[in-house]
Structure prediction request, 330 residues.
Amino acid sequence: MSLPDQMDAVEIRAPGGPEVLTRVRRPVPAPGPGEVLIRVAWAGVNRPDALQRAGAYAPPPDASDLPGLECSGEIVAAGEGARSRVGEAVCALLPGGGYAEYAVAPAAHCLPVPEGLSLREAAGLPETHFTVWTNVVERGRLEAGEVLLVHGGSSGIGTTAIQIAAARGARVFATAGTAEKCSRCTELGAERAINYREEDFVAVMTEAGGADVVLDMVGGDYIPRDVKCLRPEGRLVLIAFLGGPKAELNFAPVMVNRLTITGSTLRPQSVQAKARIAAALQDEVWPLIAGGRIGPVMDRVFPLAEAAAAHARMESSDHIGKIMLEVAGG
Prediction:
């Protein structure tokens, strides 16, 4: 297959607001050992992209400097030892580089497009599903019959966590900031959605008997409140700090109730660790998607050239679900 030498891409001109995202021409990257080259159809927009744009989340040394941590499209070339087939339609977790017509990914981080999903929908799966699986199921050890509290329930991560947890037999509570967002959370499987602008989620969870796992992307002053929500042996899982990374916390309840406080970031993990997560998703979650039990929640689509507008929408927090960039469509 003949490939072009150059491609359209969106780069970060300098650290700053959405306006620093700039359309450029770049050389088409070449896949290395164990990697594949994907002709990108769609790319997902995620909070880490905005952090990178602002200069607060540097890519790994061996990753593309272009933003974009997930995409869907067609494999058009493979490096030595790569197991994925040229011509296969996939969605992929990327180390970076998704805001472009072509992107390189480890072959082991590519997953088939679930039956019944479009490429647009599939592009919104990897970042949220990898994150939720490793944090809620693996680190949070959520079991059927347990209670999960999800903060930011209407976000891409939140809508994914609600669906996966409910499908696996957990009871789910979620926080969100509007009546519309709360309604969407309950439609997706939350037993109760808490409008944090009008209700105290600690009081609601205390009345409900507490949570076994809290998934928190807010941090800051939510952390001591999360601890108050947890039952004995409960687990607090931190994945982001929209409210700041620091908090004052009384650790006595942590000791008395034998609580676990943990968390993770996805991007710095090894290729092997993310390959293991990909295999677990294909075995445990992809059948749920193919069976129509869960699915991506889509917000708005922007052309690649309007990536700045996509970032502005994400940072407004008006969205429900995933914001997508159309690169080649399909």
Q: What stands out?
A: The chain is about 30% helix and 30% strand. The chain has a mean pLDDT of 97.
